[in-house]
């Protein structure tokens, strides 16, 4: 380039001059002297050059002043003392002036440069740096409108100047860069101002309450910039020229900043983590709810008035909040949430969001229509969360039930009696714990929707079904362990009663739970499951009652073994002891709830009678004469009466007629008591017609106990009876079929 050639020429000339000066060795001593001389010459040339340029600039200044005076005369206010604004016409004038200067200077080979270079020099001599400083101070003081006015003037000057340069010589990038570099400070001013605007925009919901004027100023500045952007884009279409940094798109940036602010506000509400607070999600969601409602109310009542209607600021903000919430909810849904957290999230997303507590707030309508809001998370994500919730809940319920049963089992071996309810019935806390847990989960599921509530109820009852099978097995093991050592556990009877009573509580609780949480049209879906549970509970209770009666009869065994023996005939008090023992046990059994206690009393009565008849059929005694038969029969009738009295007392209030059982003992006594052997067949046939399950071996045993019937007589009676009609009592429950007769002793007794 020309500059490089000039530099090379200058270096070559300098080398020649130095070589001419230093031809002899003694001249080296004068180097310092030569250097000073050359420095003086250089300073002299530079001074002359500066003077020439200054003289040109003085001419330019004079020209400008002429222009200023001319403008003032015509009343044009565009050029003010401290607020320079170079108009298009003046630029033409100054440019023409600089063309002449440039041409003259280049002809004189003084300093070759374009008009733009000299215009930059001109501006530096006027007050551009001062205006930049003033604008900066205004920004610092927060006087944003005035600062922007000055910035616009400066930008307008630069843009018009660049446009003129572009018009004259669009390929001259060097001059364009020169102008751009000169106005570099102005670009920084624009950035400084923008920074202030975005700070106000970020805090717009706070600013609008404290200083709405400031927000209005910011919006006015953005609107001015939008107009300039449009003007510059129009000019670009016509001329192809657009100034650097245009379009600024400040309106778009403002909305982007609002969007980022909203996102940050939503994300920033999570103060806690699961490790620091188990309720972290509930708190997080509640803070979000409060912030969103407060912000939207401010936006509707105050912010809307600070923006032009075409900004549609409320709806834009509403959309931003919705998007930010959707993003946040999706992030939360993707986390490894626990069952209760899934419910909190879904309840908030599906219910709280559109409720009167949030978007359905009456003060937000009609602008916010909850029916037109999109879902915060997709149905697919909702289904995934629900599926995860159900599987987590299933394993949780299994774990809770197992733990509850283990805890209950520990109570069974305590040395203190179980608690009693308000009616005095023994119970353990198991049913309460189980159904409290079911209730809690159902209440939680109900927060989401009916469908989930039904699913959770079905799940609870399914798990209850499996649990009851385990409960049954554990009660059986409890009984078996006790039988190995009847002294342990100390309160076995009381805890077995509690287990039986729990069955009734479980039954009532299942009905109550279904009534409360199941729609009537869903009843059929659970009827089989319900029937299964009831059946299992009945088995547990029945086996429990049976094991308690086993306890009674194990204690009665030595006394039952005394019946129908010589000792008994001579006046043993075995039946008295039996009655006292049964009554003693039934003092505890009074703590059994009614349906089971009633069954228990009936079963005890039945078993006592069965054991009594079994004692007769064991043929431990064979009466020797009529006297013994009479004595034995009367004793049997008396003892039947004792049993009748005992069980009437135990069944008090149950309304059960149990008289018939003791009647069997009396009917057998009548056969034994009979004095006329010729009437024996008739007496026996009456007995058989009443109790048709009496087998031949029973009759044979009975006749053996009588002691006066020959083998032939027995044979005849038995054979004749086979043809006889039976007239059983319709309420009769077969009793003899439970009683086996030992056969080995028959030949001995017949001899």
From TrEMBL:
<keyword id="KW-0653">Protein transport</keyword>
<comment type="similarity">
    <text>Belongs to the SEC6 family.</text>
</comment>
<keyword id="KW-0813">Transport</keyword>
<keyword id="KW-0268">Exocytosis</keyword>
<dbReference type="GO" id="GO:0005794">
    <property type="term" value="C:Golgi apparatus"/>
</dbReference>
<keyword id="KW-0963">Cytoplasm</keyword>
<comment type="subunit">
    <text>The exocyst complex is composed of EXOC1, EXOC2, EXOC3, EXOC4, EXOC5, EXOC6, EXOC7 and EXOC8. Interacts with EXOC3L1. Interacts with BIRC6/bruce. Interacts with MYRIP. Interacts with SLC6A9.</text>
</comment>
<dbReference type="GO" id="GO:0000145">
    <property type="term" value="C:exocyst"/>
</dbReference>
<comment type="function">
    <text>Component of the exocyst complex involved in the docking of exocytic vesicles with fusion sites on the plasma membrane.</text>
</comment>
<dbReference type="GO" id="GO:0015031">
    <property type="term" value="P:protein transport"/>
</dbReference>
<keyword id="KW-0333">Golgi apparatus</keyword>
<dbReference type="GO" id="GO:0000149">
    <property type="term" value="F:SNARE binding"/>
</dbReference>
<dbReference type="GO" id="GO:0030426">
    <property type="term" value="C:growth cone"/>
</dbReference>
<keyword id="KW-0966">Cell projection</keyword>
<dbReference type="GO" id="GO:0030496">
    <property type="term" value="C:midbody"/>
</dbReference>
<dbReference type="Pfam" id="PF06046">
    <property type="entry name" value="Sec6"/>
</dbReference>
<keyword id="KW-0007">Acetylation</keyword>
<dbReference type="InterPro" id="IPR010326">
    <property type="entry name" value="EXOC3/Sec6"/>
</dbReference>
<dbReference type="GO" id="GO:0016020">
    <property type="term" value="C:membrane"/>
</dbReference>
<dbReference type="InterPro" id="IPR042532">
    <property type="entry name" value="EXOC3/Sec6_C"/>
</dbReference>
<dbReference type="GO" id="GO:0051601">
    <property type="term" value="P:exocyst localization"/>
</dbReference>
<dbReference type="GO" id="GO:0048471">
    <property type="term" value="C:perinuclear region of cytoplasm"/>
</dbReference>
<protein>
    <recommendedName>
        <fullName>Exocyst complex component 3</fullName>
    </recommendedName>
</protein>
<dbReference type="GO" id="GO:0006887">
    <property type="term" value="P:exocytosis"/>
</dbReference>
């Amino acid at each position: 380039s020309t500059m490089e050639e000039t530099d090379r020429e200058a270096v070559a000339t300098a080398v020649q001059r130095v070589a001419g000066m230093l031809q002899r060795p003694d001249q080296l001593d004068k180097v310092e002297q030569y250097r000073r001389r050359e420095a003086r010459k250089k300073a002299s040339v530079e001074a002359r050059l500066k003077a020439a340029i200054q003289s040109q600039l003085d001419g330019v200044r004079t020209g400008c002043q002429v222009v200023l005076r001319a403008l003032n005369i015509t009343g044009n206010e565009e050029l003010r003392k401290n607020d320079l604004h170079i108009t298009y016409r003046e630029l033409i004038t100054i440019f023409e002036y600089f063309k002449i200067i440039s041409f003259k200077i280049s002809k004189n080979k003084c300093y070759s440069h374009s008009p733009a270079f000299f215009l930059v020099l001109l501006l530096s001599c006027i007050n551009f740096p001062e205006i930049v400083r003033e604008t900066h101070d205004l920004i610092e003081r927060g006087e944003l409108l005035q600062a922007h006015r000055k910035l616009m003037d400066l930008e307008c000057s630069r843009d018009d100047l660049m446009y003129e340069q572009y018009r004259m010589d669009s390929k001259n990038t060097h001059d364009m860069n020169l102008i751009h570099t000169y106005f570099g400070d102005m670009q920084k001013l624009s950035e400084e101002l923008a920074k202030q605007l975005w700070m106000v925009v970020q805090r717009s919901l706070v600013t609008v309450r404290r200083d709405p004027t400031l927000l209005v100023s910011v919006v006015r500045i953005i609107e001015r910039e939008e107009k300039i952007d449009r003007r510059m884009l129009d000019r670009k279409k016509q001329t192809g020229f657009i100034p650097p940094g245009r379009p600024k798109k400040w309106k778009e940036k403002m909305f982007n900043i609002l969007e980022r602010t909203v996102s940050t506000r939503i994300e920033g509400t999570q103060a806690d983590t699961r490790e620091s607070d188990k309720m972290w999600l509930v708190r997080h969601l509640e803070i979000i709810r409060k912030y969103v409602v407060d912000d939207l109310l401010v936006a509707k009542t105050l912010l809307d008035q600070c923006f032009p209607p075409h900004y549609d600021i409320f709806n834009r903000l509403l959309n931003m909040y919705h998007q930010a919430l959707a993003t946040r909810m999706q992030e939360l849904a993707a986390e490894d949430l626990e069952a209760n957290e899934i419910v909190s999230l879904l309840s908030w997303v599906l219910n709280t969001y559109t409720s009167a507590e949030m978007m359905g707030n009456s003060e937000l309508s009609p602008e916010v229509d909850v029916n037109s809001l999109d879902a915060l998370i997709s149905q697919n994500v909702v289904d995934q969360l629900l599926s995860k919730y159900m599987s987590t809940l299933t394993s949780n319920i299994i774990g809770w039930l197992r733990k509850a049963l283990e805890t209950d089992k520990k109570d069974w071996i305590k040395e203190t009696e179980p608690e009693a309810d308000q009616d005095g019935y023994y119970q353990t806390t198991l049913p309460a714990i189980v159904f409290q847990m079911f209730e809690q989960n159902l209440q939680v599921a109900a927060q989401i929707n009916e469908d989930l509530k039904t699913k959770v109820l079905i799940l609870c009852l399914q798990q209850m079904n499996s649990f009851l099978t385990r409960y049954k097995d554990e009660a059986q093991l409890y009984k078996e362990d006790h039988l190995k050592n009847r002294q342990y556990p100390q309160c076995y009877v009381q805890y077995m009663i509690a287990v039986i009573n729990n069955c009734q509580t479980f039954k009532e609780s299942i009905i109550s739970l279904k009534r409360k949480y199941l729609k009537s049209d869903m009843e059929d879906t659970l009827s089989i499951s319900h029937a299964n549970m009831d059946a299992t509970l009945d088995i547990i209770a029945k086996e429990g009652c049976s094991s308690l009666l086993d306890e009674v009869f194990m204690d009665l065994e030595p006394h039952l073994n005394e019946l129908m023996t010589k000792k008994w005939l001579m006046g043993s008090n075995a039946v008295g002891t039996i009655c006292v023992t049964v009554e003693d046990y039934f003092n505890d059994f009074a703590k059994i709830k009614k349906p089971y206690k009633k069954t228990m009393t009936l079963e005890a009565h039945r078993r006592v009678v069965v054991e009594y008849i079994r004692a007769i059929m064991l043929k431990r005694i064979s009466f020797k004469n009529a006297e013994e038969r009479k004595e034995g029969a009367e004793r049997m009738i008396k003892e039947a009466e004792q049993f009748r009295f005992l069980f009437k007392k135990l069944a008090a209030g149950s309304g059960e007629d149990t008289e018939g059982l003791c009647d069997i003992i009396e009917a057998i006594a009548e056969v034994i008591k009979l004095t006329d052997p010729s009437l024996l067949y008739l007496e026996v046939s009456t007995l058989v017609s009443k109790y048709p399950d009496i087998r031949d071996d029973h009759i044979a045993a009975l006749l053996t106990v009588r002691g006066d019937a020959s083998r032939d007589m027995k044979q005849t009676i038995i054979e004749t009876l086979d043809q006889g009609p039976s007239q059983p009592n319709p309420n009769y429950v077969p009793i003899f079929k439970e009683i086996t007769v030992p056969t080995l002793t028959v030949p001995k007794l017949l001899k």
